[in-house]
Amino acid sequence: MKARRRGAKGAEGRTQAGRPAFAVHAERGGAGHPVVVAVVLFTLLAVVTVVVLWVRSAEPDRSGTWETPGLGAEVTVLWDSLAVPHVWAGSTADLLFAQGFLHARDRLFQMDLVRRTAQGRLAEVLGQDALDSDRFLRTMDLWSVTAEEERRLAPELRALLEA
Fold first, then answer.
1. Which CATH class is domain 75-161?
2. Residue 16: pLDDT over 70
3. Are 114 and 107 in contact (CB under 8 A)?
4. Main-chain phi, psi angles of 41, to 5 degrees
5. Is residue 74 a contact partner of residue 90, using CB atoms and an 8 Å limit?
6. How many CB atoms lie within 10 A of CB 82?
7. Share of the chain above pLDDT 90, in %
8. What is the band of 53 on the pLDDT scale with cuts at 50, 70, 90?
């Protein structure tokens, strides 16, 4: 008689312990219990709804009228379906003022980040990971270069930039 490993099949397709070699268990199908599936789907729907509402609440109000000092005449801003503003103004100074207003209103954090980048001060916001970048940018001295370029601007251009 040959020695068999434990669990090896005998001639009848059964193990030595007498159990079938390949047992098929009648468990639930792949879909799972209907209540569990419903709870998971409801939870997923609730999470998606909350995320969509949160993202939409972060969008700025694009309706109404704002009165701002510094404008010479009325300025009209219309946003297209991609939220791109289109600005109409009576003068270049008013147009640039409105553009600056919209940038500050919609992109203040980005503007601050770009300024800090040019100054080599990103680590103040982003932490230790930005120190190498700050050292490099301070070596480049972009902030001083731009200050010198600003000093050399023609008076007409300076007035438009300050609009």
1. mainly alpha
2. no
3. no
4. -65, -40
5. yes
6. 5
7. 48
8. confident
Residues 64-109: pLDDT tens digits?
Answer: 788 888 888 999 999 998 889 999 999 999 999 999 999 998 889 9
Task: Quickly tell me which residue has 């946003």 as its tokens.
Answer: 79
Query: 62, 58, 59: which is closest to 87 by C-alpha?
Result: 62
| Amino acid code (one letter) for 34 | P
Q: For residues 68 and 98, is the Cβ–Cβ distance under 8 A? A: no
Backbone angles phi, psi at 18, to 5 degrees: 95, 5
Beta bridge partners of 14: 20
Name the pTM for this structure.
0.56
> What is the band of 25 on the pLDDT scale with cuts at 50, 70, 90?
low
As a dihedral over the C-alpha atoms of residue 52, residue 54, residue 59, residue 65, rounded to 10 degrees, the angle is 110
